[in-house]
Amino acid sequence: MQKPDRPVLRDIVLIGGGHSHVGVLKRFGMKPVPGVRLTVICRDTHTPYSGMLPGYVAGHYDFDDIHIDLSRLAEFAGARFYRDEAVGLDRSARTVLCRERPPVPYDKLSINIGSTPQLGHVTGAHEHVVPVKPIHRFNDRWQALLHRVKEHPGRRRIAVVGAGAGGVELALAMQYRLRRELSAQGRDPGELEFHLFSRSADILPTHNARVRGVFEQVLAERGVVLHTAAEVEQVGDGCLRTVESGTFDADEVVWITRAGGARWLGDTGLELDDDGFIRVTDTLQTVTDPEIFAAGDIASMVNHPREKAGVFAVRQARPLADNLRRAVTGRALRPYRPQRHWLALISTGERYAVASRGPIGFKGAWVWRWKDRIDRRFMARFNDLPPMDTDRDDAWHSVRLDGEEAVQAISAVAMRCGGCGAKVGASVLSRTLGLLTPVDRDDVLVGLHAPDDAAVLRVPEGKALVQTVDFFRAFIEDPYLFGKIAANHALGDVFAMGAEAQSATAIATVPTGLESKIEDVVLQMMSGAIEILNDANCALVGGHTGEGRELALGFAVNGLVDEDALLRKGGMRAGDVLLLTKPIGTGTLFAAHARLAARGRWIDSALASMIQSNRQAAACLREHGATACTDITGFGLLGHLVEMTRPSGVDAELDLTALPLLEGAQETVARGIMSSLQPANVRLSRALRNQADMADHPRYPLVFDPQTAGGLLASVPADRAEACVQALRALGYSDAAVIGRVLARSDALEPIVLNP
């Protein structure tokens, strides 16, 4: 991770999380280039290793065995991980166009997105086949097919189209797994009928005759019906048709042939081969644009054409990383020449495999064990992450800069002015703010795009004004998501009091650096924030942006409320039920993330919870007669509950087993990983009547866990609580739950009781 006092001078953007790019991340994590920032754009947090996919399908591995955690790897490498999908390039502006966020600028770009099934020439294929490529999306499709087979009684015909090594291996793995699943259900495995279709006259056409013979024998022994010289031209509901032999019944059609490049590449102006793959030189730079690199299946080496195989993507990681490093530091790039022959270890479903290299072939259970050791050793490279090398030279000694950039870089690390001298430059702000479109409100008389010194708002007659402010530093590397979370967090207080949001004023600090880098961070961050504000019909009316060591963002928010509709903390009544709208655990999870101890999917679910607005939840609680409400933030569940009991003059009890938790939170607290604010919150344990009895409960630490953009805690009349929970879940608050009760005030000094 770049140190705050070291400005970012160059951006390397990696599109995709394929085998080459995970190697690049690992190598940059081990030896960063000062002043160079990596950004990974990938829609999936966990990227599969193709070499272990058949073993996963066969049931020999679980999900985590075969998936590399991109979020964790990016954190190790000090890279920004953008969970999004690239949909295009603007090469003139040097930006990546994304599906969900503003364009992402790059200085050097690398593409490693694998291949995409080319189904357009086969009638009905888009609607009726299960494509294996792109491989990172296969798991969901495989799980759906597995469910259909298990739930469907009677005979089931499964067709696999494509009889290269991948198709043969996958067909045998699927057959092995599905037969075992049916046996476990007490069903006859003979209900399954497998067919393998090959366009050519042979299976495994790129392998030697001995290897082909082994697999022909295995397929025959397993009862897989082989159709050679059978090109599929149409797929329908429950059938497929070949050019040569007519129609065959097929309940499932799995497609593992005729892959090509993603469609959006055709609009980039990059030179592609006949299958839509990017043509690259020996240095892995695209033929068209030397600032753009490509590797893995998506790359087609002009001088060294090779079969699409995972081994080449893995081997290209080192030269790709080295040449990206050389490109940003102004050194000559080195050519890469892939080997002509490579070892393929092809499994047969059970723990048995065949080795193939050129004219050589051999087989056995020991080959599978050999393959298993190789694959597990490869995965360990990305799971057992060593400490980073922190011995770095000054940034401008490494990265080649133009004249104006060099001046800006020196200025960025020089002694900086305070006061108004610490403002971000006017030209940067004007360009950024010009791209933002806040909602229009009739009660905003002077807003964001007016040249005046302050915003002017109208408070409608009969309304009370609600004001709140929140501000915190970034805890994730993605400024767009951080902007969303910061805005959501700030709006929470307004919604908790039953008000509607009217306006927001932003205050931000951004690290110093080149103007283009500052501009991108501000744009990404404020674009995320304004999406949340606009969704809440809250107008962004102004703000202030200054320099700081770390990225930080906050908002002063105004809200409007009818005085008789105001929800406060002090309205709880004995007999009410306590209801929580979101799961807890963000504090421990992000503490674990910073220590590389959290799984990426845990962080994904936490982020999804944090960007979910409390607006609809607050309205639902009011409709169901909520008597008091607050949002759960830094003081944790217990701290905010104590804030409610005191002014209400009541006690309360919490059911620990009923608490909704974010995935992974209980695991991380069990390992002793806590937020830095946890010790201060634990001092509130004096409010617990039975603290000594509950201190060993596995969920006990989580009542102190500080939350960011947490849910709403409310008291609701007991006779309306169940209906309220159901209504919340229907609105998308799937973890909403009753977590306790409000009790009459007792003589005890401690107001809170915990139940196991």
Can you walk through the features of this model?
The structure is a single chain. This protein is of the alpha/beta class. The strands form eleven sheets. A six-stranded mixed β-sheet has the order 33-35-32-36-34-37, sandwiched between helices. A five-stranded parallel β-sheet has the order 5-2-1-9-21. Strands 11-18-12-13-14 form a five-stranded parallel β-sheet, covered by helices on one side. A hairpin with a 5-residue loop joins strand 7 and strand 8. Helix 1 (19-30) runs parallel beside helix 4 (70-77). It is globular, with a radius of gyration of 29 Å. The chain starts with 9 loop residues before the first strand and ends with a strand. 49% of the residues are buried. Mean pLDDT is 91; it is low at 390-397.
Write the topology of this structure:
Layout: E1 10-15, H1 19-30, E2 36-41, E3 46-48, H2 53-58, H3 63-66, E4 67-69, H4 70-77, E5 80-82, E6 86-90, E7 95-98, E8 104-105, E9 108-111, E10 116-117, H5 125-128, E11 130-131, H6 138-151, E12 156-161, H7 165-184, E13 192-197, H8 209-221, E14 225-227, E15 232-236, E16 239-242, E17 246-249, E18 252-255, E19 259-260, E20 278-280, E21 292-294, E22 299-301, H9 310-328, E23 344-348, E24 350-357, E25 360-364, H10 365-383, H11 403-413, H12 426-433, E26 444-446, E27 456-457, E28 463-473, H13 479-496, E29 500-510, H14 515-535, E30 539-547, E31 552-562, E32 577-580, H15 586-594, H16 600-610, H17 615-623, E33 628-631, H18 636-648, E34 650-655, H19 665-670, H20 678-682, H21 691-694, E35 712-716, H22 721-730, E36 737-744, E37 752-755
Parallel strand pairs: 1-2, 1-9, 2-5, 9-21, 11-18, 12-13, 12-18, 13-14, 20-22, 29-30, 34-37
Antiparallel strand pairs: 3-4, 6-7, 7-8, 10-19, 15-16, 16-17, 23-24, 24-25, 26-27, 28-31, 29-31, 32-35, 32-36, 33-35, 34-36
